[in-house]
C-alpha cells in the first residue's frame, strides 16, 4: 500500500486514519538513505506530491522551502546566489547510490558534513518548520528569523528524528555565504594519532579553517576566504605547520566534494560505519581496528568512518567505540549486511526512557517509521 | 500578568517543608521572610513574589534528593542561577521553593585537546572565558550580563551575545549537560563529542527556561581567541540608511563577528555614561567588528567601509588598538544601565524581526511609546534582527508601570505581525507568556506543551512560565486538536 497525499490536509487525514487503524507507515519519498530509512511498515507514505513555494532571501540569510524538494535543487539555487547550506550535508548518493534525496530527508537524517565543527551542525541551521504529528495535527514551530528562543526548540528536536515523531512539510533554514576562494593543504600523516596531533595544531591557526579531515595517509586542511585574504591565510598556516602540498581553487573544491562523500571510495560490499567521538579518542579507536579495516577521519578527528570488508562484518564496532571513548563514543552502521552486530547500540536508560515518552506523545499509535525510532533496531 | 492561585494546602506546610528540605541539604535552606526576600525577583523587577523557601544545594545528589522529595510531596520548584533573567523566568512561586544553584560554582575540567570545558551551572559566563584565557581560548557566547549571569541560566535561556551572528548562541556551543528531572532522575545528555545518538534531547533542553530539568553540569566548547579583532564605528543620518547598510553587508557575503546598532536616544545615553567616543549627531550608530587573521580583518574592514560609504555613512572611526575597540563595545554593552541613568526605570523588550522590516517596526515602536506617553531608546543586534527597545518610565508615577507593560506587549505584537517572533534571547518567562497565542496557534502550543509531559508529567518544575495555559498531561494526551480548534475553548486561563 502506498499513500501519496497531495496536500498537508490530506497528509493529516492519512495519518489520522492510519493511527485509528494502527497501520504503520514508512515515511519516505525517493528512499535515498535506505540505511537510515524507515524500514518495514504496513504501508509507504510517499511525500513526493507535497509541493510548495521556495523563498530565498539572501540578505536575510533565510531559505524557506517544501520538505519534499530535491536537495540538489536547493544546493544549486543557493550556489547561484553565492550561498550554501553551511552544514554541508553528506551526499547520500555516495553511500547508497540512490540519488541525493530531499531537503526534508536531509534534515530528518541530519548528516552534517566537513564544515560541521566550524559552521555548526544541521540542527544549528533549522530555524523553523511546519509538519504533521503522528496524531495528524498540523503544526508550526520555530520562526522565520535568525534568532529566536520563543517556546521549546522543536526544530532542533525534529532535526535528526528520522520521520519518527512528525512528518516535516516545510523548512526554514539559515543559509550562509559560500566563501569565494578556497585552498587545501595536504600534509602526510601515517597514523590517526599523527593526524589528530597535526589537526590540533592547525586548529590554532587563525581563522579561515573550514575543513579538517584525514584519509589515505593525508591530512586535508581547507582554508576559505576572499581571494584577497586567502594567500595570507595560507601563508600563516604554512608557517605553523610542517610542509605539505597546496591544492588550490577547483581542485580543492573537488577534494572536498569528494570529502563530503568520504565513504565513496569504499567498496560497495563493505560495511560502512559512522562513529562520533571526541577527537582525542580517535587514535585509541584506530588502535583497536583489525587489519583490513579502513578508517578515515572528518570533523578534525571527531567523526570516524569505518569500512569493513565482508570477512570483518562481525567485528564489534560498538565494543570498540566503548573501549576507545566510553560513553562519549557511538557508532551507527549505515550500510552493510545485517549480522549479529546491531546497527546501533542501545541508548543509555535515561535518554531511552525520555525518547520513548516523546515518541508516545507525538505518535501514540506508533505509526511513523516505527523501526527508525531511537532504540528500535538496537 | 496573573499567576495561578497558589495552593493553600502547600503554603500551610511551609515549616514542615523547610525542615524536611533542611534534612536533605544541611545548612542550605532559607525559610524566613527576610532571608527569602532577596530571591523575590529576577532582572524583571516589575514582578516580585517571595517563595516558601530557598534551597541551596551543593551536589547533584542533593539536587536529586530535593527534587524527588518535592515531586513526591507535590511542591513546585523554580531553579535559579544568577537571577538576571529579563523575562521573569526565575520569578518564584508563592507555593513553591527556589532551588538556587549558586553553590555549583566550580570549573570541573578543561580539555584543550578536545576544546571543551566542563563547568558547574553556577559558574558565571565570563569566568569560563577567564579560566581558559591564559591558553589563548575563550567561550564564545557573550551576553551583556556575562559578568553576572550563570552558565545554567544561559543554557536555560539559550542566551546570545553580540558575537552570536558568527559564533552562535548558547545552543551550538553546548555539547553536553547533566540534568536532573523533577522526579529526581539524573541523566547525561551529550558529552565531549559533537553528536549524540537518538533524538536531540540536548537541543530541546537548551532554551527550555527551566521547565524540563535542572542542569547540574555543562560541557561547553571553547575556541582559540582570534589574534586580531577590529571594530568600526559607523554613524548614519537615518535608521533606514543604517539598516540598508546591514543588509548590503550580509548580501555581500560578509558575516561580521559583531554587527550592532543603536538609535539616537540610546547613543546619547551610552555616550553620556561611558564616553566611548560615539558621535551624538547621528540618527543611527553601528558597530561592526571583524576578527581573524590580520589580512582577513583588513579585507573585511575595507569592504565594510566601502559599503557603509555607499549608504550615506557620515561618521566613520576604526579602532586603532585593543583599548579603543573595547571602549567602542563598552558603550554598547552598558546601554541598558546607561538608559537606567536617564530614566527612573526602563523596561527592556526583546523581539526579533526580519531585518528588512526594521525601519517600519522602529517607527511603529516610537508611535506605540508615544501613545503611552513614554520615551524609548533602541539597541539592536542588527545582524540577526534582534531588537531591544528600552521603554522608559517611572514606577513612582501611578499608571506608568502598567503603561510600560502595555507598550511592551504592543511592541512585541508588532514584531510578530511584521513576520518576527516574541523573543530573540531573553525568553518568554512570565513576561511574554500571555502573548504566546499571538505567535502560535492552539495546536502549535499543544504540541510544545506535550514535551513538558515527557520530562515533568506533574507540572511541578517552573509552572506558570512560557505557556499561557498549562493543561494537565492527561488532557493534552487525550486532546485531538484539528483545524485550529481547541476542544476545550473555555479551559481556565490564568
Ligand atoms: C516537486 C518535486 C520534485 C521531485 N523531484 C525529485 C527528483 O528529481 N529526484 C528524486 O529522487 N526525488 C524527487 N522528489 C521526491 C523526493 O526526493 C522525496 O519526496 C523525499 O521525501 C525523499 O526523501 P529522502 O530520499 O531525502 O529521504 P528518505 O531516504 O526517503 O528517508 C530518510 C529518512 O528521512 C525521513 N524523512 C524523509 N522525508 C521526511 C519528511 N519530510 N519529514 C520527516 N521525515 C522524513 C524518513 O522517514 C527516513 O527515516 C521530488 C519531489 C517533489 C515534491
Ligand atoms: C543588564 C543585562 C543584560 C543582559 N544581556 C543579555 C544578552 O546580551 N543576551 C542574553 O541572551 N541575555 C541577556 N540578559 C538576560 C540574562 O542575563 C540571561 O537570560 C541569562 O542567561 C540568565 O542567567 P541567570 O544565571 O541570571 O539565570 P536566572 O535569571 O537565575 O534564571 C533564568 C532561567 O533559567 C532557569 N535556570 C537557571 N539556572 C538553571 C539551572 N541550573 N538548571 C535549569 N534551569 C535553570 C531559571 O529557572 C529561569 O527560568 C541580560 C540581562 C541583564 C540584566
UniProtKB/TrEMBL annotation, chain A:
Specify one Pfam family.
FAD_binding_4
Q: What would you give as a GO molecular function for this chain, any one?
A: FAD binding
Q: Which Gene3D superfamilies match?
A: 3.30.465.10
The record's keywords, sorted A to Z, are:
FAD, Flavoprotein
Q: Where is the FAD-binding PCMH-type domain?
A: 1-178
Keyword Nucleus found: no
Output this protein's name.
FAD-binding protein
Q: Which organism is it from?
A: Novosphingobium piscinae
Automatic annotation (TrEMBL), chain B:
FAD-binding PCMH-type domain: from which residue to which, for each copy? 47-225
- Give the molecular function GO annotations: FAD binding; oxidoreductase activity
Tell me the lineage of the source organism: Bacteria, Pseudomonadati, Pseudomonadota, Alphaproteobacteria, Sphingomonadales
Q: Which domain of life is it from?
A: Bacteria
Q: Which Gene3D superfamilies match?
A: 3.30.465.10, 3.30.70.2740, Vanillyl-alcohol Oxidase, Chain A, domain 4
Q: Which UniProt keywords apply?
A: FAD, Flavoprotein, Oxidoreductase
Matches recorded under InterPro entries: FAD-bd_oxidored_4_C, FAD-bd_PCMH, FAD-bd_PCMH-like_sf, FAD-bd_PCMH_sub2, FAD-linked_Oxase-like_C, FAD-linked_OxidoTrans_Type4, Oxid_FAD_bind_N, Vanillyl_alc_oxidase_C-sub2
Q: Does the keyword Flavoprotein apply?
A: yes
State the needed cofactors, names only: FAD
Q: What is this protein called?
A: FAD-binding protein
Amino acid at each position: 500500500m502506498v499513500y501519496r497525499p497531495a496536500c498537508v490536509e490530506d497528509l493529516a487525514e492519512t495519518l489520522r486514519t492510519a493511527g485509528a487503524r494502527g497501520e504503520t507507515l514508512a515515511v519516505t519519498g525517493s528512499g535515498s538513505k535506505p540505511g537510515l530509512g524507515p524500514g518495514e511498515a504496513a504501508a509507504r507514505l510517499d511525500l513526493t506530491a507535497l509541493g510548495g513555494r521556495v523563498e530565498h532571501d539572501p540578505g536575510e540569510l533565510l531559505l524557506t522551502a517544501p520538505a519534499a524538494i530535491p536537495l540538489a535543487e536547493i544546493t544549486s539555487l543557493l550556489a547561484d546566489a553565492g550561498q550554501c547550506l553551511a552544514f554541508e550535508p553528506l551526499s547520500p548518493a555516495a553511500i547508497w547510490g540512490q540519488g541525493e534525496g530531499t531537503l526534508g530527508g536531509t534534515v530528518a537524517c541530519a548528516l552534517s558534513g566537513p564544515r560541521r565543527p566550524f559552521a555548526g551542525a544541521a540542527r544549528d541551521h533549522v530555524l523553523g518548520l511546519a509538519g504533521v504529528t503522528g496524531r495528524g495535527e498540523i503544526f508550526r514551530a520555530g520562526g522565520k528569523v535568525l534568532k529566536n528562543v520563543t517556546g521549546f526548540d522543536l526544530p532542533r528536536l525534529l532535526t535528526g528524528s528520522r520521520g519518527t515523531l512528525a512528518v516535516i512539510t516545510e523548512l526554514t533554514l539559515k543559509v550562509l555565504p559560500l566563501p569565494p576562494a578556497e585552498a587545501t593543504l595536504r600534509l602526510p600523516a601515517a597514523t590517526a594519532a599523527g593526524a589528530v596531533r597535526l589537526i590540533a595544531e592547525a586548529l590554532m591557526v587563525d581563522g579561515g579553517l573550514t575543513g579538517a579531515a584525514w584519509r589515505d595517509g593525508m591530512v586535508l586542511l581547507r582554508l576559505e576566504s576572499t581571494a584577497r585574504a586567502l594567500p595570507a591565510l595560507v601563508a600563516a598556516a604554512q608557517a605553523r605547520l610542517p610542509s605539505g602540498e597546496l591544492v588550490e581553487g577547483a581542485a580543492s573544491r573537488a577534494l572536498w566534494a569528494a570529502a563530503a562523500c568520504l565513504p565513496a571510495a569504499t567498496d560497495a560490499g563493505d560495511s560502512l560505519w559512522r562513529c562520533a567521538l571526541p577527537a582525542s579518542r580517535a587514535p585509541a579507536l584506530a588502535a583497536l581496528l583489525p587489519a583490513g579495516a579502513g578508517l578515515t577521519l572528518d570533523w578534525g578527528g571527531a567523526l570516524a568512518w569505518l569500512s569493513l570488508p565482508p570477512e570483518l562484518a562481525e567485528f564489534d564496532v560498538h565494543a570498540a567505540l566503548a573501549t576507545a571513548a566510553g560513553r562519549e563514543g557511538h557508532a551507527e552502521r549505515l550500510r552493510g549486511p545485517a549480522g549479529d552486530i546491531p546497527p546501533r547500540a542501545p541508548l543509555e536508560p535515561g535518554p531511552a526512557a525520555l525518547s520513548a515518552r516523546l515518541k508516545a506523545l507525538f505518535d501514540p499509535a506508533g505509526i511513523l517509521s516505527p523501526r527508525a525510532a531511537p532504540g528500535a533496531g538496537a | 500578568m496573573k499567576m495561578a492561585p497558589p495552593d493553600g494546602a502547600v503554603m500551610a506546610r511551609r515549616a514542615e517543608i523547610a525542615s524536611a528540605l533542611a534534612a536533605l541539604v544541611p545548612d542550605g535552606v532559607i525559610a524566613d521572610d527576610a532571608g527569602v526576600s532577596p530571591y523575590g525577583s529576577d532582572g524583571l523587577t516589575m514582578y516580585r513574589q517571595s517563595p516558601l523557601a530557598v534551597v541551596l544545594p551543593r551536589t547533584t545528589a542533593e539536587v536529586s534528593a530535593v527534587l524527588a522529595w518535592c515531586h513526591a510531596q507535590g511542591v513546585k520548584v523554580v531553579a535559579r542561577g544568577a537571577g538576571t533573567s529579563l523575562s521573569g523566568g526565575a520569578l518564584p512561586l508563592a507555593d513553591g521553593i527556589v532551588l538556587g544553584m549558586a553553590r555549583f560554582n566550580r570549573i570541573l575540567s578543561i580539555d584543550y585537546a578536545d576544546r571543551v570545558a566542563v563547568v558547574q551551572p553556577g559558574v558565571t559566563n565570563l569566568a569560563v572565558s577567564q579560566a581558559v584565557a591564559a591558553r589563548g581560548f575563550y567561550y564564545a557566547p557573550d551576553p551583556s550580563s556575562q559578568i553576572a549571569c550563570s552558565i545554567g541560566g544561559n543554557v536555560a535561556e539559550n542566551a546570545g551575545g553580540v558575537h552570536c551572528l558568527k559564533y552562535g548562541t548558547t545552543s551550538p556551543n553546548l555539547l553536553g549537560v547533566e540534568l536532573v528531572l523533577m522526579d529526581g532522575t539524573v541523566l547525561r545528555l551529550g558529552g565531549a563529542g559533537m553528536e549524540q545518538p537518538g533524538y536531540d534531547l540536548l537541543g530541546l533542553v537548551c532554551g527550555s527556561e527551566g521547565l524540563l530539568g535542572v542542569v547540574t553540569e555543562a560541557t561547553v566548547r571553547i575556541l582559540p581567541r582570534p589574534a586580531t579583532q577590529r571594530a568600526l564605528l559607523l554613524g548614519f543620518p537615518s535608521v533606514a540608511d543604517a539598516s540598508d547598510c546591514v543588509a548590503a553587508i550580509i548580501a555581500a557575503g560578509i558575516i561580521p563577528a559583531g554587527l550592532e546598532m543603536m538609535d539616537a536616544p540610546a547613543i546619547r545615553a551610552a555616550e553620556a555614561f561611558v564616553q566611548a567616543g560615539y558621535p551624538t549627531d547621528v540618527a543611527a550608530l553601528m558597530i561592526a567588528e571583524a576578527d581573524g587573521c590580520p589580512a582577513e580583518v583588513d579585507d573585511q574592514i575595507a569592504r565594510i567601509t566601502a559599503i557603509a560609504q555607499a549608504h550615506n555613512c557620515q561618521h566613520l572611526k576604526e579602532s586603532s588598538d585593543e583599548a579603543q575597540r573595547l571602549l567602542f563595545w563598552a558603550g554598547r554593552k552598558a546601554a541598558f544601565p546607561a538608559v537606567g541613568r536617564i530614566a527612573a526605570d526602563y523596561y527592556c523588550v526583546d523581539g526579533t524581526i526580519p531585518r528588512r522590516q526594521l525601519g517600519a517596526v522602529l517607527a511603529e515602536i516610537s508611535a506605540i511609546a508615544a501613545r503611552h506617553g513614554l520615551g524609548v531608546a533602541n539597541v539592536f543586534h542588527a545582524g540577526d534582527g534582534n531588537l531591544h527597545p528600552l521603554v522608559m518610565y517611572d514606577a513612582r508615577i501611578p499608571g506608568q508601570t502598567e503603561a510600560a507593560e502595555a507598550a511592551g506587549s504592543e511592541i512585541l505584537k508588532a514584531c510578530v505581525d511584521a513576520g518576527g517572533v516574541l523573543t530573540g534571547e531573553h525568553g518568554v518567562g512570565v513576561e511574554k507568556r500571555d502573548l504566546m497565542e499571538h505567535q502560535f496557534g492552539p495546536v502549535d502550543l499543544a504540541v510544545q506543551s506535550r514535551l513538558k509531559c515527557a520530562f515533568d508529567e506533574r507540572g511541578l518544575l517552573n509552572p506558570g512560565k512560557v505557556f499561557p495555559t498549562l493543561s494537565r498531561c492527561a488532557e493534552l494526551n487525550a486532546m485531538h486538536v484539528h483545524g485550529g480548534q481547541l476542544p476545550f475553548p473555555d479551559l481556565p486561563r490564568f
